[in-house]
Design brief:
The chain is α/β, with parallel strands linked by helices. It has a single domain, classed as Alpha/Beta hydrolase fold, catalytic domain (Rossmann fold). The chain contains ten helices and eight strands. Helix 8 links the parallel strand 7 and strand 8. Helix 1 crosses helix 10 and helix 4 packs across helix 5.
Length: 255
Amino acid sequence: MPKIDVNSLEIHYVSKGEGSTIVLIHGAGNSHMNFKPQFEYLGGDHHVIAIDLPGHGSSEVPEDPSLISVEWYSSILKGFLEAMGIGRTSLIGHSMGGAISMQYCLEYPKDVKCLILVSTGAKLGVSPVLFSVLRSDFKKAIENEYLTRSAKRVDQVLLKEVQAASFMCDPDVGIADFEACNNFDIRGRMKDIMSPTLVIGADNDQVHPLYWSEYLHEKIEGSELKIFDGDFLYTLEKPSEVNDTISKFLRKHLV
């Protein structure tokens, strides 16, 4: 498995294809496997990279997880791209990965060709109940994430692979992820996102309600909005439809 040193941490990634670079950024407590269908499909036309954030999947665990924030992850992404020799790129972020993508776009606006935001929001509040569950049994909380309504319609072999990769997440890092999400709020900076943006949401998403996606579309000038029938795992439930939507958007803007 390829790894690269970023800020004294070994970061695992997978890459595929040639052409314009696209980086896939997973959500809290997850791994690059949550984007497996998109990675495989988009790698046919682009140079696609999917990373495991520090402490996730096969990436090294940071010594002090309390340092984790969306801003910190954005700095890790910057270091990763510099280490890989990649300048301008397109970002696809799911959930917390979407927050990281937006933060990166705000910090390095000239470096982002396209921005694709999947099941995310400008503010990612986390309920005290979820924090309680995470702190008492992190693995059980992550397991419950894969018991959503849409999970029943996901290929079960793929679902087990994705779930197993999520179980590799260091619990302290996973909890810090959700704290980072809870502290994330860029509602006052939405007008500063200037990259071509596609917002994707699901009408029955119980983790990130559809109105979060609608808010992003309303506030990011010129953005496009695509709504799917599904729940939190609709990228795995309906990979062909999601892949087609993303591919059409990229063909339009990556000229």
